[in-house]
Write a structure and sequence with these properties.
Blueprint lengths: L2 E15 L2 E13 L14 E3 L2 H21 L6
Parallel strand pairs: 1-3
Antiparallel strand pairs: 1-2
Length: 78
Amino acid sequence: MKTYSIELQRIKSMSNAHGLVRIQMDALVQPQSNQHADDEGRAPSSHLTLTEENARVLLIQLKAQLAEFDKRKPKSRF
């Protein structure tokens, strides 16, 4: 498995269609070595790094996209 270090620099836009949320963003993506001293015994995985400001923007936009999904869902008949 290839692993990457992903640094989110800016979120440009978000949209959803057909059950998928699409995010257009600027990010720095670099291959990551599979061996790290602090990851011994764990499966290799990619890492996403973002600033607190970008984390807040992402959270707000994800909440808005999920609310839009919920509006389209049929209401329960209970």
